[in-house]
Design a protein that fits this description.
This protein is an alpha+beta fold and 438 residues long. The chain has eleven helices and 21 strands.
Length: 438
C-alpha cells in the first residue's frame, strides 16, 4: 500500500458536452499516457442501470497490490480507509481468499492477483456532460489536453499466430474426464477454459481495443493498463452492481449466433430461450448466485428478478438472468466479493469442488480472465464486470493471450464443445481481419 496517505477533498468541474465516439477516443488517448489507466465504456447500453456512459481513471494517488492468501483482508482495509473513488481488478487467483482453493499458476501477462487505486485524474461522462476531477491539474487544463489528444502511430493489422493449449483429441479426453466427475456426483457443471497464446507480438493496445469494440460494442467493455500489462475487454456480462444497498448480479449462460435475416435471427433467439440444455445450465448458475448473495443479503430479500432473458448483441444472443438482494446492514462491496467471487458463471457448481477440478485439469492459470474489473465510488456504490471476450497483453515481452471456455454438463458433446471454443477463438481473431478491412 503506497502513495500519499491523505488525498485532497475531491471535487468535480462539469462541462456541457454531448457524447460521441470522438470524445471517448480522446479520453482514452489521454489516459493511456499514464502507467495506470482504467477506461470503461458501456457503448450506449442503458438497460441494466449504468450510472455513467463512460469513465476514465488515470494515474494513481494511492494504490494497493493484492496477493492471494491475504489479498481480501488487505483490500477490505484499503477500501475502509480510502474514502475516495477506487478502480481496479480482482484476478482469478483470489479464489484462495474467497473459497479456500489455492491457484498453482501465476499470471503470464504479469497482472497481480488484485490491484486497486485511487485515481489522480477522474473523468465521468454522461449523455450530456463531462465531469473532471484531478489532484494535480486544473480541470480546464485536463479538458484542453483531452481535446488535443491524438492516437498513436499507423494502424497495425498483421494478425498474430496463436497456439492452442490443447489439441482436439486431448481437449475431448479432458472433457470426458470431467464428465466422469459429474457422473460420480462430484459436481453438476464446470466451466472449462483453454488459452490461445502468441509470442513476440508488437501492437498498439489502444488501436486493438478500438477495433475490438467496433466489432463487438458491449455494455461492460474496459481498457485496463497496469504498467506493461494490458487487458482489452469487450465483456457483455456484469458481475455485480451495488447501489443504495441493493445488489444486482447478472450471470450469462447460453449463447446463440445472430443472423442478418430478421426472421431467422428471431428464430435463433427463440430457440435459445426455449433450449432445455441452455436453461438447465443457466438455472444452475442462478441457484449458485442466489446462494452466494444469501450469505450477505437480508433474509428473504434475494429474488430472481428475471430468468432466461435473451438479449441481442452485435454478434450473438445471450441468455441473461438477474438476481437481486438487499445487503445486510454494516456490510459493503468487499463483503459481496468475499461471498460470491469467483462468479458462478465462470466456475460451475458446487463452486469449491469445481475450482479444485479447474486447478487439476486446466493446464495454465486464468490470470485476469474470469476475474473482474470495476469501480467503487465514495458512497460505496460499485459496478464490476466479468472479464471475458478479452485479450491480455504484455507490451515489454510481446506476449499475447486470450482464453475461451464453455459450461460442461453430463449431457455435453465433447466434440461440439471443442468446435464451440474454436468459434469463440475465431471471433477474437477477427479483430485483425476487421482492422485490415477498415
Amino acid at each position: 500500500m503506497t502513495g500519499s496517505n491523505t488525498a485532497p477533498s475531491r471535487s468535480f468541474t462539469r462541462y456541457a458536452l454531448p457524447v460521441d465516439d470522438t470524445i471517448k477516443q480522446q479520453m482514452l488517448n489521454w489516459g493511456n499516457q499514464f502507467n495506470i489507466c482504467c477506461f470503461m465504456d458501456n457503448h450506449g447500453y442503458q438497460a441494466g442501470a449504468h450510472s455513467y456512459e463512460c469513465l476514465l481513471a488515470a494515474g494513481s494517488w494511492r494504490w494497493v497490490k493484492l496477493r492471494a492468501g491475504s489479498g481480501l483482508d488487505l483490500l477490505q482495509a484499503f477500501a475502509a480507509h480510502a474514502g475516495d473513488w477506487l478502480f481496479g481488478h480482482l484476478g482469478f487467483g483470489l479464489q484462495q481468499d474467497c473459497v479456500g482453493v489455492s491457484n498453482r499458476f501465476g499470471d503470464a501477462v504479469g497482472f497481480p492477483d488484485g490491484y486497486f487505486f485511487v485515481p489522480e485524474h477522474l473523468l465521468l461522462l454522461t449523455p450530456d456532460e463531462l465531469s473532471i476531477s484531478s489532484y494535480s491539474l486544473p480541470a480546464d487544463q485536463v479538458l484542453r489536453q483531452v481535446m488535443a489528444s491524438r492516437g498513436a502511430g499507423p494502424r497495425q493489422t498483421e494478425a498474430p499466430t496463436f497456439a492452442a493449449t490443447y489439441p482436439r483429441d486431448e481437449y475431448i479426453r479432458l472433457i470426458k474426464a470431467l464428465q466422469a466427475h459429474i457422473q460420480r456426483g462430484d459436481c453438476y457443471e464446470i466451466n472449462f477454459c483453454q488459452a490461445f497464446t502468441a509470442q513476440g507480438v508488437q501492437m498498439d493496445p489502444v488501436q486493438v481495443y478500438r477495433d475490438l469494440c467496433r466489432l463487438s460494442p458491449t455494455p461492460f467493455s474496459v481498457y485496463y493498463k497496469l504498467d506493461d500489462s494490458y487487458c482489452l475487454c469487450a465483456s457483455p456480462e456484469r458481475y455485480f452492481r451495488l447501489a443504495n444497498r441493493r445488489v444486482w448480479s447478472e450471470p450469462i449462460k447460453g449463447t446463440a449466433a445472430r443472423d442478418p435475416d430478421p426472421a431467422i435471427d428471431q428464430a435463433l433467439a427463440t430457440r435459445l430461450r426455449n433450449d432445455p440444455k441452455e436453461q438447465a445450465e443457466n438455472v444452475m448458475i442462478v441457484d449458485l448466485v442466489r446462494n452466494d448473495l444469501s450469505r450477505v443479503c437480508q433474509p428473504g430479500s434475494v429474488q430472481v428478478e428475471e430468468l432466461f432473458g435473451v438479449y441481442p448483441f452485435p454478434r450473438v444472443h445471450q441468455m441473461i438472468s438477474t438476481v437481486t438482494g438487499l445487503l445486510k446492514a454494516g456490510l459493503g462491496w468487499t463483503d459481496v466479493v468475499a461471498a460470491s467471487f469467483p462468479m458462478g458463471s465462470m466456475t460451475g457448481a458446487p463452486k469449491k469442488r469445481v475450482l479444485e477440478l479447474i486447478g487439476q485439469y486446466e493446464r495454465r492459470g486464468r490470470g485476469l480472465f474470469s476475474g473482474s474489473i470495476g469501480y467503487v465510488d465514495p458512497g460505496g456504490h460499485a459496478d464490476f464486470n466479468v472479464v471475458i471476450r478479452s485479450l491480455q497483453y504484455h507490451r515489454a515481452t510481446g506476449y499475447l493471450e486470450y482464453l475461451v471456455g464453455s459450461g460442461i454438463t453430463g449431457y455435453a458433446d465433447a466434440a461440439h464443445e471443442y468446435e464451440e471454443c474454436l468459434l469463440k477463438a475465431a471471433a477474437i481473431r477477427s479483430v485483425w481481419a476487421s482492422a485490415a478491412q477498415s
